[in-house]
């Protein structure tokens, strides 16, 4: 794998410490299953170096049988489960909102997303082994081992899931990604995988789980990763009134051609992805004239993997001149994406999901 | 009930034969549970007059034990189930799309929707009693008893559901609405209730059910109630390429004040509904200046009825002049409604769900 890393374009690094990086889009579009080395990395703190032989997972709180498991015990005591699922950052495509008005956070292009085959055990099996109270209004809080420093506040990463989601069959405690052990930056030796939800609900370097009657009290859960109205600023925000970001919205992106590419007049193939999380992508439209006309993209055959993205391609006939390509997806409830980033702008730049636009020069 | 009907404003009748009618919006907003007499009526043909003592339901096709049940047998053989759920026409709010460009169909305002307590039996229980093949890619086709004439084609109503939806616990074969027998116009003596889906997937006057490997071949399923791209017309449509309308999109409406109302300057309470079908409504915004500023509406306490609508209200402070009020809802995946009806325009006027705008004069 190392040689592949060296011969392919590197990730685009937004920040080295914490490490935040995403693949170039053309590269992202090459593989329906994203290789680990080219999967976006979103860190809030350091990347812990953990010894799998000594790593333990505890399950406590509103349970009848608290657990304290080694990695070997986790693997042998529970059945192996595999789920193919997209993970994406709540800030994926933030750069588009940044162009409207400044937002805080890294300027992610549409590459803060990837699709992988996750291997591990069903989280529901572990919760049941612990005799967790399965009341659907409860919460499952995670504590991880990465050390974070946000504006002088020092803490370890924590976040939570509603019990109803935690019990759903595709949520995993994962130790494999595409058949290999997780790389350190993806949470080695153990992470949560919560299909459909923002990446922040899939904590890496997982150390403990608590079943409780309140969401996690961690900074990450309480004072970040919430959607607030457009008039709210960093100075006026009342985090308790924001919507906790769990399910991700319908989204799509043009991966090829690249923004500001120079193309020859005539036929060009555009390629990209679309994602509808718990819904299905039913149509992808591409326009070369700001949405006055749309042509329907061809969708790659459904992979029977409900949490995957959809790859699309569309043959365009481009006359000479300056053009802006645009893509929008439609979901199985007949919803489509916002026209402009300012239709859903918020000061944190979350859930940026307007038509993705790519300016090109055709000669 | 009859006297109530006579002393309240009548339904707004778009067509008498077939009967298509909706309540005035202020009236719709009075009751969280919509009375039968004031529930919108969408008919494709006649309203059959059926004798409940002679009415029978058959279940055939890919089943091990075909059923042929009287209404009494249906009631006594299966447990009673109650579900509170919104039904809405796929063409609700079509009038807004009509203002962009002509569309076919009745010009529904936002009143082609209602919320009721449905009583009946779980459809899954009946399918299991028949030994239906539960393969999730199969279809359950319904045949009803209303006679339809569309452009010279005469047929009886038929439609289908994917097996996976048919088996979900809240889909009913219903004989009661708000504790009473169904009124004739709502499907007496038996109808389907498919929460979250367009009303067309909740056939009235239900006579038979077939488990099969293809969707219904009825006109209603194959050549209507599909979402097509904006450039498609009645003359160019290839129905096989349209998206079958099942799940309904996020929507909201201002019920009070009424369009073109004259109001006094100062505080005014706006009221309306919002609906996110299988998701949750997390926020409702109201603007008096075309979306430059938004105020957050107050949502009535969650009723623990996941398929219900949400009632909202917002106190507005209106200066003298001409204003256009607008509302938009947000769902639990961070999606919101399109800004303009032409963002999702289609020649059938389906799934009209842009910001709902109400012009008012303030003096």
Automatic annotation (TrEMBL), chains A, B:
One annotated GO molecular function: molybdenum ion binding
Key word Metal-binding present: yes
Keywords, alphabetical: Heme, Iron, Metal-binding, Molybdenum, Oxidoreductase
Stretches assigned to the Oxidoreductase molybdopterin-binding domain: 44-219
Pfam (any one): Oxidored_molyb
PROSITE patterns in UniProt: MOLYBDOPTERIN_EUK
Biological process per Gene Ontology, one example term: sulfur compound metabolic process
The Moybdenum cofactor oxidoreductase dimerisation domain, residue ranges: 244-362
Cofactor(s) listed in the protein's UniProt record: Mo-molybdopterin
Protein name: Sulfite oxidase
Native source organism of the sequence: Acidiphilium rubrum
């Amino acid at each position: 794998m190392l040689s592949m890393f060296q011969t392919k374009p590197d990730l685009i690094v937004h920040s080295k410490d914490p490490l935040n990086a995403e693949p170039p889009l053309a590269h992202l579009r090459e593989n329906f299953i994203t290789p680990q080395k080219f999967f976006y990395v979103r860190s809030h703190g350091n990347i812990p170096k953990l010894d799998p032989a000594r790593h333990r997972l505890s399950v406590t709180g509103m349970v009848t049988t608290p657990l304290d498991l080694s990695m070997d015990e986790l693997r042998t005591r529970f059945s192996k489960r595999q789920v193919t699922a997209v993970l994406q950052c709540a800030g994926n495509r933030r750069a588009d909102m940044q162009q409207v008005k400044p937002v805080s956070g890294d300027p992610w292009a549409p590459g803060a997303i990837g699709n992988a085959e996750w291997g591990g055990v069903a989280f529901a099996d572990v919760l049941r082994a612990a005799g967790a109270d399965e009341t659907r209004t409860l919460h499952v809080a995670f504590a991880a081992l990465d050390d974070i420093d946000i504006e002088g506040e020092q803490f370890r990463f924590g976040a939570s899931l509603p019990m109803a989601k935690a019990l759903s069959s595709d949520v995993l405690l994962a130790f494999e990604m595409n058949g290999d052990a997780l790389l350190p930056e993806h949470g080695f030796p153990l992470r949560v995988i919560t299909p459909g939800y923002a990446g922040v609900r899939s904590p890496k370097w997982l150390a403990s789980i608590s079943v409780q009657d309140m969401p996690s009290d961690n900074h990450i859960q309480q004072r970040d990763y919430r959607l607030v109205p457009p008039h709210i600023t960093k100075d006026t925000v009342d985090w308790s009134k924001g919507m906790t970001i769990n399910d991700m919205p319908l989204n799509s992106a043009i991966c090829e051609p690249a923004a500001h590419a120079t193309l020859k007049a005539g036929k060009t193939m555009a390629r990209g992805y679309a994602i509808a999380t718990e819904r299905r992508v039913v149509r992808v439209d591409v326009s070369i004239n700001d949405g006055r006309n749309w042509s329907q993209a061809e969708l790659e055959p459904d992979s029977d993997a409900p949490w995957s993205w959809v790859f699309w391609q569309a043959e365009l006939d481009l006359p000479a001149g300056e053009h802006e390509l645009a893509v929008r997806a439609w979901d199985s409830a007949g919803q489509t994406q916002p026209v402009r980033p300012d239709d859903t702008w918020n000061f944190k730049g979350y859930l940026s999901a307007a038509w993705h636009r790519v300016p090109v020069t055709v000669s």
